[in-house]
């Protein structure tokens, strides 16, 4: 497969590099035999495709009509040859995996774990995928670190003597440039204002309250934190939780139930998906970031009503994210808000990756896009990104927060957020707002915006296919082929740049990518080094799907020489 991979890279670079879908013709994406149960030709539907242009400033420039299998996301333009070779690579992996399993049953049957009468815990394609595909590249995931996740951190080296089935840690550390952590404002490292106050809080309150909020787990810090968050997001009240993932997965079952309708963006986070499923509400999905399709779904569902009875829905909620974590795209919030107000439905905005990271004063996509927070019924966010802490929040009306404090299991039964973590959030918000007596907060916000736009622009000039919008600190670089996932990650690590690679099932099968997260703590020299490394690795691996811009690239390399 490696030889085939190298051959196809050569073919791709000697041809047109990138082939956009012809318009206005339609076509069918090829479906490999081993995926035919999932992608049935009889279930083809029509959708809209967003095509990214590397010369644009991360704005969508064209929409085409094509025929694709019914998968729950908006497809991006994939080069024909890339799609073919990616399918072929997965087909080879699948075939060789099945081949090895067949001979293992014949020649190594005595090593089976199921001989004692117990049913196997892991079954089916999930187990096969883990054993035969994931384990090949598991060294690219879950790399332990031995320092704070600042602009640079120490990565613990690991090795394997059993074909990557197990990884053993060593005492060796690699000092790497951190492009994987979502430490957007740099608060994950020691801070001159936040850290002393966190240490003082640790001495006063201890690491944990060892109790839920309704028992002995509410301190004055928790009340102060909720007031601070409510003021920051400009909502009447807020409630905080000890874990960001739980905030979504525990809140939605409380707010929605049988007879309710949830309309969710097709690329919403897994915590939203699980929370929606756990609510018992009817779930409908609209095409990613396409307000017109949201309106179509709304009109259809309002007209049809509840399943079987066709009674009116008890309530309808539209759920979107501020910045989509795997795409780096900003939500089309103004248009979506207008549609929700038109049809009198609730809006739920997840600002996990946008709060604190975008906007003039760090107040998220509402501030960035000029949306009044009063028009958003429920605002959710996490403290794990921009604030260097843990937990999440829900902000809304006082009646809503009062209800959640008496009905949400995550508030009633889970241990409250750690007091030092609460102090970290309070202190970081004060820095962002300039209440610490300095302008460091404004400088951090300006720095992350400048860093993000600079890095995105340079990657596009080099010929990489980069998703997302301007001002977003999340920028996925498309890899596509499964062989390029470990190759890109390992080669970057060899050159002391730590990146995060993402593949199926976290992304669709064809759309593997490397997710770059930019921080305000990155200096211009850090970013230049990262660009040089990524450019070299991109040439080696073959992921520059666009032709580079020679003039600008030469000027940049001369002016920004680092080594």
Rg computed from alpha carbons, rounded to a whole number of angstroms: 24 Å
Fraction of residues in H or I helices: 25-40%
Shape: globular
Q: What's the total count of β strands? A: 15
Overall pLDDT, averaged?
A: 86
Strand content: 15-25%
Count of all domains: 2
Question: What spatial order of strands do you see in the largest sheet?
Answer: 5-11-10-9-8-6-7
Largest sheet: 7 strands, mixed
The CATH topology assignment of the largest domain is: Aspartate Aminotransferase, domain 1
> From the helix content, strand content and strand pairing, which structural class follows?
alpha/beta
Unreliable parts: 1-74, 551-563
Number of helices: 17
CATH architecture of the largest domain: Alpha-Beta Complex
Please name the fourth-level CATH homologous superfamily of the largest domain: Aspartate Aminotransferase, domain 1
State the name of the first-level CATH class of the largest domain. Alpha Beta
Q: Termini distance?
A: 34 Å
SSE map:
Elements: H1 2-14, E1 45-51, E2 62-68, H2 80-107, H3 124-134, E3 152-159, E4 168-178, H4 194-205, H5 220-233, E5 237-241, H6 244-255, E6 261-265, H7 270-279, E7 282-286, H8 291-304, E8 316-321, H9 333-342, E9 346-350, H10 365-369, E10 378-382, E11 392-396, H11 398-407, H12 409-412, H13 419-433, H14 440-462, E12 474-480, H15 484-494, E13 497-498, E14 500-502, E15 512-517, H16 524-541, H17 550-559
Parallel strand pairs: 4-13, 6-7, 6-8, 8-9, 9-10
Antiparallel strand pairs: 1-2, 3-4, 5-11, 10-11, 12-15, 14-15
Helix pairs in contact: 2-3, 4-13, 5-13, 6-7, 13-14, 14-16, 15-16
